[in-house]
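The pair is quoted verbatim as follows:
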Amino acid sequence: MKRILLFPFLAAILSATAVLLLLASNLYTFHRLTAEEPIAELGFTRIGPQTYEAVIWYGDFCTPMTYRLYGDQWRLDAEFLKWRPWANLLGFDSMYRIERLGSRYLDIQDENTNRHVSYALTPVVPVDLTAVIAGYQGMLTPVDTLYGSSVYASMDEATVYRVFRGQSGLFVRKIASLGGNDASHGLTIGINAACAAKPGIAERFFRFLDGLFSGLDSR
């Protein structure tokens, strides 16, 4: 009889634990905001009329990604998560994650009629924490606000664009290109950790969760 009564209780505990793990794995896709620092670097090569090859370094800054963009300017979008003051006291810092790379045209007519393309830069997660938080507006939520921030600039082959994040959003600084017209000139941001270094325990754990729940979703 006791085993029968304990079964619903254990099932509830396991379900709650699974939900918390899913949310934690999604939260890991955000990065903590503790001070102003660069989060991405971009270079461009013109390969045709209003057509560019964009090289972007972000994340661990170890592997450049190449994309084709159409237009006159590039655009980078990020999502910011700001906690309430009492959550800050518990050690929760504002966070961000890079979401999308796209482009835009200077002329509004071109913007409305010419080709557009955007690329998702956010890892796929089984549960979107932002959607969960946005659906709850109660007094006990630790989240102050979720909002998007974008930055854009011209796609100039002679310029390297370094994107920074602050507590309020994104901004960009321009530096001279080290490689002339070659967009794959190489990263100019110093990296604190070696690219070949193994991920930490927490990172390996959350990667395992992402793979596990992604596999369950595909069944």
Notes: The chain has one domain: 26-187+194-214.
